[in-house]
Predict the structure of NAD(P)-binding protein.
Amino acid sequence: MKKSFFDLVVDQWSTVPPVETADLSGKTVVVVGANVGIGFEAAKHFARMNPARLIIACRSESKGKAAQAEIQTVCGYKPCELWLLDLASFSSVEDFADKFQRECDRLDILVMNAGIATRVYQPTVDDWESTLQVNHLSTALLSLLLLPGMIDTGKKSGSASRLVIVSSDVHYWAVIKDEVKQASKPIAKLNSEDYRTPQAMGARYLDSKLLNVFFVRALQNRLLSTTPLTANAVNPGFCYSSLRREFYEKPLTNMIMCVWEKLMAWTSEQGSRQLVYAAIAERDKEDHMKGAFVSKAEVVEPSDFVLSEDGKRMQEAVWSETVEILTKEAPQLRSILQEHLAS
């Protein structure tokens, strides 16, 4: 599928489907990146569905507490829990997963929403470019570390758990150079000095959203058809968001962004409806949601590149390299993958 700027405009000017609802009584929901924007609005929607536990995972304790208080007050949902998590640190991800395994006996819905969009090269404490680590590597790590709990919950409940990775329709416009497509380790290539230039960093967010789509499809391909877990990637649309905070720092880009937002942007609440849809909708057509790319409350084709032979090869290279990187950081991951995924 190709998507032009005109297609984006049409999507943004069309009616946003209403929020999906369900009874989440007895269920556990985790929303990562839930203190602001679409993650916060999605957490409020889930809170109104009365889950047994709603955990909002945030990097900032002060912002997380403010979000927690508002969910408790506005939604009348007192059990909302705040857990701290920094996706720019592999050790923080492992600590979160360890805590979850100790303190939670089920996981029905995991929404991996946290992400960054920066045009400036900035390494993490683990020496990865920050967008690559936050948007892809750590997102994959937490998803895989919590995989056993999601699968076990699906088996006990008789209803597939849902893993939702927040991607974007900008993956349609990711342009991958041949040397990256053909690399045995494309992530390392994107992390190299050659790809720290302003031009490369200007496209990094698009690259990371493509990696999200690859990860979801590769993971779902390795789950047995009988495994009660559905992974999908979702496009929240172009919304008002603090994600683009860097664009507001310079007068020209600030002016351009303000015009675009006034003409096309959905509210954060409208964008959050897509996350909720990916998490709870189409329970009567579970197979339809497996490995899917969800946009505007329906399953749509990902980019032509994703579906191409080059895209499939890169997807497999990205998966293999991701597993190699993450098992070095978290050796316990190796046994999880061996037990739950087909080789």
About this structure: The CA atoms of residues 113 and 137 lie 13 Å apart. The mean pLDDT is 93. The chain has one domain: 5-340. Residues 5-340 form a domain with the Rossmann fold fold (CATH 3.40.50.720).
